[in-house]
Amino acid sequence: MRTREVLLATAATMALLSVSIAQAQVPVPPIPPSPGWTKALPPGPDTRVKITEEYAKMVARDAYFWAWPMVNIYNRRQAFKDVKDFVMAGPVPSAPLNRVAMLTDYVNPDQRIVACPNQDVVYGAGSIALDVSPVVIQVPDFGNRFWVYQVVDLRTDGVVQLGKMYGTTPGFYLLVGPNWHGDVPKGITKVFRSSTNTGFVAPRIFQDDTAEDKKAIQSVLTQVMFYPLSDFDGTMKSYDWNKIPKVAAAASGDAETRWVFPEKFFDELPAVLADAPPLPGEEARYAQIRAVLDAMKSNPALKPAMIKAAQEVEDQIVTPLLQFRNYGEQLPHNWSTISNEAAFGTDYFTRTAVAKSNILVNSPNETKYYYQDLDASGARLNGANRYTVTFPKDQTPPVNGFWSLTLYNEHHFFANNDLKRYSLGTKNRDLKYNPDGSLTIYVQADPPTDVLRANWLPAPKNADFSLFVRAYWPKAAVLDGVWTPPGAQRAEGTVGRQ
Fold first, then answer.
1. Which residue from 99, 84, 92, 83 is spatially nearest to 137, judged by alpha carbons?
2. pLDDT tens, 213-269?
3. What strands lie across the sheet with 171-176, from one edge to the other?
4. Helix, strand, coil shares of the chain as percentages rounded to 5?
5. C-alpha–C-alpha distance, residues 495 and 493, integer Å
6. Which helix or strand (DSSP H or E) is residue 7 part of?
7. 246, 368, 380, 405: most buried by Cβ count inside 10 Å?
């Protein structure tokens, strides 16, 4: 009798467990917010209350810093909104909103649209306006070639996962805005939803540094296309980017094109905030700056003070963040990195620092970045000196894709040189390894001996510069922090001399 009771109890327990497991496997829909839930939030600023100039300046300073990247992306959209067709504006490909224009080779060193470009991929560029139309993203068959499509929202956070590391198949994908609820046409493989209507697109297609590959890549580049949903008919579209019309571009300086202006910032901010609803926890921040913007309208005397405060933030806080040594996770040999790229959320400091120094970074599983302003001893990197960067045997960046070491001038653009060489890495088939299997890169202004010439990364004469390691599709050792780059050692004596 006792045995029978035990068996019955065990059976009942197993039945309950089975039900529990079955229930656990059924997705539970999110609980919708209660009607009028916003009324339960703490009351925001009373906009009827007069505020002081110093208070307006305080709020303006804070808003200028955390909204700087959003206004940056917003103004890139404004720059594209009047483009009617594909054009090559000087060295930069331009496209109408919700389309992308592609280069056909490495980026021109004269471009100043985006700081810290790389010389490993063929880029594309475009601005998205999902309030105008959803966008079809066309993926051709890249074969074994590395590729990744980057799409960021107004906050510079990534919104799609498309690339070789994702096993993405050729076909058509749809990008929609936060409020789109239309019908998805037959033939669309997957839908991605952005939290904002405004964003930026930057495809990257790997190309090695040989004439053969520069020719081989052309056929697949023609099918890298983004276009409005109304143009979708289920067939692969193509465009010969070698035939894109060329037009003159406005003169550019040495630094990145300016996208954020203190004197215009508070006029543009309302549209930016409307397009980027507050993240959880940001409601009070939004209410505060909106109340000050309302006060500025009713009291125009506040605006000059707010602009002055914004200019102070630009000069004293944002501008210094161009220097890599002023932010990031600190690593051995004075390298630094970040781990939340393209997913900044409410990390306002890192997001603005990256937007200032090297905007449009990929997510960590797509690309890991390492930044360097200082040599291994802590002195500023400068072309008056000679340096070596030596990767021990089997210790080049562990990647499934490719890696590179790039040199940038003080403005984070390529340092012009006769070789037109701005980086070394996977794409260079003629790198010379040392007898012990290590790889030494010679970073200096003057050419080294002929036998070392393939490993020479030219530096600007008597000028500061930065080094930048990219690890595309990094392996676990990179993502886990086990691998970090070797130091830039200042060379002494005759090493590396002609």
1. 99
2. 999 999 999 999 999 999 999 999 999 999 999 999 888 899 999 999 999 999 999
3. 188-193, 171-176, 135-139, 225-228
4. 30, 25, 45
5. 6
6. helix 2-25
7. 368
Q: Which two tokens stand for residue 368?
A: 């890991």
| Dist CA 280 CA 271 (whole Å) | 20
pLDDT at 2 over 70: no
Residue finishing a domain among 217, 244, 271? 244
Same domain as 238, residue 133: yes
Is residue 33 very low, low, confident or very high in pLDDT (cuts 50, 70, 90)?
low
Residue 260 is encoded by which pair of tokens?
Answer: 């954020």
Percent of the chain past pLDDT 70, that is, above it, reads 91
Residue 215 lies in a domain: yes
Mean pLDDT throughout 301-320?
A: 98
Unique residue bearing structure tokens 């202006």: 261
Question: Beta-carbon neighbour count of residue 1 at 10 Å?
Answer: 5
- Element (H or E) spanning 66, and its range? helix 53-80
Distance, in Å, from the CA atom of 324 to the CA atom of 358, rounded to the nearest integer, reads 9
- Examine the fold and report which residue of 244, 265, 280 is the final residue of a domain before the chain moves on: 244
Question: What is the CATH classification number for the domain harbouring 339?
Answer: 2.60.120.600
Look at residue 250 in the predicted model and tell me its pLDDT: 85
Task: Please say whether the beta carbons of 410 and 465 come within 8 A.
Answer: yes
Q: What is the mean pLDDT of residues 336-344?
A: 98
**33 lies in a domain?**
no
pTM, 2 dp: 0.90
SS3 label, residue 241: helix
Average of per-residue pLDDT across 441-456: 96
| Structural domain containing residue 172 | 86-244
Question: Does one domain contain both 137 and 230?
Answer: yes
Residues 226 and 345 in one domain: no
Is 310 a member of any domain?
no
Rounded to an integer, what distance in angstroms lies between the CA atom of residue 312 and that of residue 262?
Answer: 9
Mean pLDDT of the chain: 93
